[in-house]
Amino acid sequence: MKRPVLVTILGASGYTGVGLYQLCLGHEGVRVSATSAERHAGEQLSSVFPRVAGVGDRPLLSVEEALDAPADVAFLCLPHEAAMAIVPRLLEQGRIVIDLSADFRMDTAESYEQWYKVKHSAPDLLSRKVYGLPEFHRHAIRSARLVAVPGCYPTSAQIGLAPLLTRKLINPQTIVIDSKSGVSGAGRKLTQRTHFVETNENLAPYNVGRVHRHVGEIEQELSRLAGAEARVIFVPHLVPMNQGILSTMYVDLVRSATTDELMGVFREHYAGERFVRVAPHLPETAFVLNTNYADVSVRVIDGTNRAVVFCAIDNLVKGAYGQALQCMNLVCGFDEAEGLPV
Amino acid sequence: MKRPVLVTILGASGYTGVGLYQLCLGHEGVRVSATSAERHAGEQLSSVFPRVAGVGDRPLLSVEEALDAPADVAFLCLPHEAAMAIVPRLLEQGRIVIDLSADFRMDTAESYEQWYKVKHSAPDLLSRKVYGLPEFHRHAIRSARLVAVPGCYPTSAQIGLAPLLTRKLINPQTIVIDSKSGVSGAGRKLTQRTHFVETNENLAPYNVGRVHRHVGEIEQELSRLAGAEARVIFVPHLVPMNQGILSTMYVDLVRSATTDELMGVFREHYAGERFVRVAPHLPETAFVLNTNYADVSVRVIDGTNRAVVFCAIDNLVKGAYGQALQCMNLVCGFDEAEGLPV
Amino acid sequence: MKRPVLVTILGASGYTGVGLYQLCLGHEGVRVSATSAERHAGEQLSSVFPRVAGVGDRPLLSVEEALDAPADVAFLCLPHEAAMAIVPRLLEQGRIVIDLSADFRMDTAESYEQWYKVKHSAPDLLSRKVYGLPEFHRHAIRSARLVAVPGCYPTSAQIGLAPLLTRKLINPQTIVIDSKSGVSGAGRKLTQRTHFVETNENLAPYNVGRVHRHVGEIEQELSRLAGAEARVIFVPHLVPMNQGILSTMYVDLVRSATTDELMGVFREHYAGERFVRVAPHLPETAFVLNTNYADVSVRVIDGTNRAVVFCAIDNLVKGAYGQALQCMNLVCGFDEAEGLPV
Amino acid sequence: MKRPVLVTILGASGYTGVGLYQLCLGHEGVRVSATSAERHAGEQLSSVFPRVAGVGDRPLLSVEEALDAPADVAFLCLPHEAAMAIVPRLLEQGRIVIDLSADFRMDTAESYEQWYKVKHSAPDLLSRKVYGLPEFHRHAIRSARLVAVPGCYPTSAQIGLAPLLTRKLINPQTIVIDSKSGVSGAGRKLTQRTHFVETNENLAPYNVGRVHRHVGEIEQELSRLAGAEARVIFVPHLVPMNQGILSTMYVDLVRSATTDELMGVFREHYAGERFVRVAPHLPETAFVLNTNYADVSVRVIDGTNRAVVFCAIDNLVKGAYGQALQCMNLVCGFDEAEGLPV
């Protein structure tokens, strides 16, 4: 029997960090050697998340302490900027890095700096990273040393649009993405926006147009899928629920097609994919809650040459820590679904 | 001093009926002479809605009994089909009818039958009704005998799009309306869809494409505003909250324009309107909760000839009973805002 | 016609301050001369609460500026400590002070300091304040210069227990108060506890036993009602909803009684009270949402000498700003219900 | 290697049935041979619960068809009355029956009939059943042929009170149980009470006093634990969330004690129990969501001889299908935690 893969989780006091930790506990081939949380260093993880008491409580270290722990794989659940500050060291230490932050998602320092408004401190690594969306980059992920796990909104957009873009069935320049997200997408940090009373019983759009940082990532990756420049209008909305993203996407077909035909295209595109379900019904976020599934469906609108694509994911699982573990399974040679919730 | 206007409310055991009743209680020029609720005839209104105890509890009558009560104005908060069955009698009795159902919203029996799948029993009255959206039909409402109060989604769509359609600034054939509604829009009837556990912590699209009955009404009225045939893609979504609609609308500009310019157009269009607020911020449903306001805003998307229009209303107030009372104020010569929540 | 009463609202950027402001807008005898919010001085109220745009937007002043504005009545919606720091000046200025903070609720500086852990800076005023629960102190409030508006939990406890305590029907030493509150009770300040994701889909007890600051106020006032020392076990719980308190209270009867008999006692006690409804059904928070009502009911438990009393209020209205306005109506000689939502 | 245990799930279209089914899919020693749902016979399980698509969809049979399927163990997720109608046949067929309904929880037909108001059709089996709360009846469950899985409220009450009752530290006659439950406890059936709009943003008590059917079960089992007749006041409340129960229990100590001392008693009582966590913090329902844990804690109230006990469980997991699987693990000789979520 193989020795377990040793992993460290840097940034374990956020929703993605603790979720990833709990998945690792249930993964038979993995052992967690360290968990860090800068602001809570010295405390137990259960003091931040009482739900892990008895399951697998452990001390929270500072990032520096965690860097010293033995590890084959380091998961980074840190804010952007913090991640790129330590990735070079982790790679030098010989760790495989699976980064859930945005720091290595963009292909160039210029585009990173355009969208994130900070200078990139490790620009040479951008071209060495692999973009961690297994359904489209499985082969490259298997041999990656640095995986940039996609953002939650970009995951839903790519899984929803890839079948149509790769077959050049839609105009990549006129895509509308109307996304609705649960509040955990905003993280655990305190903001007026995420105060219970302001968000409960409210539906709020935010960062309209070309403002949200995910626009750059979405357009970069949709362009790659389309083999042509893609351009999107992206409007995210905050929904009074904890988890889940539904992206409703409006596209212009370049030739007439029927719903049945496009559903066939989707089924063909995702044949054999374990975590994408081409749903005859309309996807709803509750159907994928706490799972690594992406549910997709498409409808051609009668009497128009337009279609609506739906993609529902759990923003924390397929949109973050589930997808990260899926990447690790590929990198480490495990079954791709090992340890993932269905 | 004038004698109060006598009103009856037929269908007082639904959310719109009881809400309208409570507004009437606070309206100094109105006295309610009867409230009906077929299934609860003989009970007190407070047995269905304990919140009205002490405020103005009263007996629920059968529809037949309520028809006999003296009334200047009859409000109909009945399901479609039930409304058209009694409107002719009410008009013969000399009542002014303010109908919150869908039965008289369409201009022709054909279009009604197309969207509602039932034969219209009073087709000759369709051309005599006035469509009760005061911001656009104020003059006609003042002398109406039969007012068809708009649907909730159509109200948000029209208020959001009218400034651009009437000035022919957008293509009326390529409008996308992505609407998000609280659950009270589905009424008080029991369905699996509105069961708490199925709707809470869930975001669900439904009736995609040209399926929802409001599509016909939306296209009819947008066409009137545009002076040209309008065509929409309409996708409603159910949001886990009680009240509120946000419509996010994607439109193609026929010439280039800036956000500032279009905001100016909106402000000009709604100058002097007491219940439409042209908001510099993005509208959120909580800002209009329990009020008769419609909040609208518009953003041109950089580098495109497209814009996004937002309109938030409370589906029960501006989307139903508030708008109905606003119509009554016009018909009866009251101040238009009398008795309306702000 | 009388000139309107001029009022200032100090602390208008919290939930109670803005709610009070909106009530004042609808009160025909009142004009607001100034609103303050230290952290937002210089901004418009609508920048904090977009919902007031168009209704009655106005500038937010610093406290010092607001103190200079002409005023007959000053409402204080400030945190404790901040209130007592300025009450003496307001009284010297000849204002009537209606204080929604906790600073003047206790009868002695000792008890204040015991529960609030800070030194009282105006102890001589404690004996001059009137406790602002109109149902029990109506006469005194009419001539008060300083009204201490009760806390939300204490309001529900007193209204629920007064009929039994004043008649000495229960043991005042063995009262259990199990309260459930919406999240707005914790205010608008950011805390991990009120972060949406931590509170949504969660039911959490807090401050168990003799820890919550309201225990002192509850026992002081229940003792006054009982004419004997009262002692309570108080356990508050946070409920995933915005507004509303339900207190479920378990009491030991000193003699056997029936539910009917005790319901009669409640009806007699509250006969003529406009804002207390003795409900035959069990009170629910939704029945009193956005109203100034307290709904109460009592059940004797078969085969025991114990009873359960329920009291539901809206924590922001009857539990805070509605009750404050009710007090102002008494002080200023208005009808007690003027401007209050029902 | 042993052949898998064959199980049937009768009543798979409710929340407990589908939850149990999903646990069984992840249990390595179990294979599901049939799932029934009378009203949905002939449909696929995924047509009722789209979330199981791809995971392990399967046809729904009628109960009669499911009775013919090979099975070592039959789980009954049926309403009361329906369960007792088929249990005798299942036992004759040699199946082990794990019944999640209330039909076999009571010790005598008289008490069943008193609380459930229907005649028991298999009274002789009542004395042969084992009450399925593993923490207290582990030994008996191992050799049971008919296991009556406890109700959700009774589970929380027993786990919370057992340490104090068995040591005779409290008066068993004066127990107050104030319980708060998520809405899934009311099942999937449509009722006005569980309509989203009526339950959302509402906190509602129901079935006060000696009315709720669980009172009988609670008193029967607490009496067994106490070795003396127990008597409770039980007040359940409906909370606007999907899952979770928190029971707040008020007890009279028979001698003085400290919180530390009683916490020690709890830790000792539950030493070695994998699914009971004696929590230093106050239990919250979110900490046990989707797990089989019961979190308990106790506080002595200063200056009184009373204590408050808290117990939080997920009403669907430890309160229903998780506990059922835990029982099956014991009956079938698996590790007690096999397949259970933590």
Description:
Four copies of one chain form a homotetramer. By secondary structure, the first copy, chain A, is α/β, with parallel strands linked by helices. The first copy, chain A, folds into two domains: 5-128, Rossmann fold, CATH 3.40.50.720; 153-315, Dihydrodipicolinate Reductase, domain 2 (2-Layer Sandwich). Chain A has helices at residues 15-25, 45-48, 63-68, 82-92, 109-116, 134-142, 152-166, 196-199, 214-226, 259-269, 285-288, 317-332; strands at residues 5-10, 30-36, 73-76, 96-99, 130-131, 146-148, 175-181, 204-205, 232-238, 245-252, 276-278, 294-300, 306-313. Chain A has a seven-stranded mixed beta sheet with strand order 8-9-7-10-13-12-11. In chain A, helix 4 links the parallel strand 3 and strand 4. In chain A, helix 6 runs parallel beside helix 12. The longest helix of chain A is centred in the last third of the chain and has 16 residues, at 317-332. The first copy, chain A, is globular, with a radius of gyration of 20 Å. The first copy, chain A, starts with a strand and ends in a 10-residue tail after the last helix. The model of chain A has no long low-confidence stretch (mean pLDDT 97). Chains in contact: A-B, A-C, A-D, B-C, B-D, C-D. The A-C interface holds A 15, 183-184, 188, 190-192, 194-197, 199-201, 240-242 and C 15, 183-184, 188, 190-192, 194-197, 199-201, 240-242.
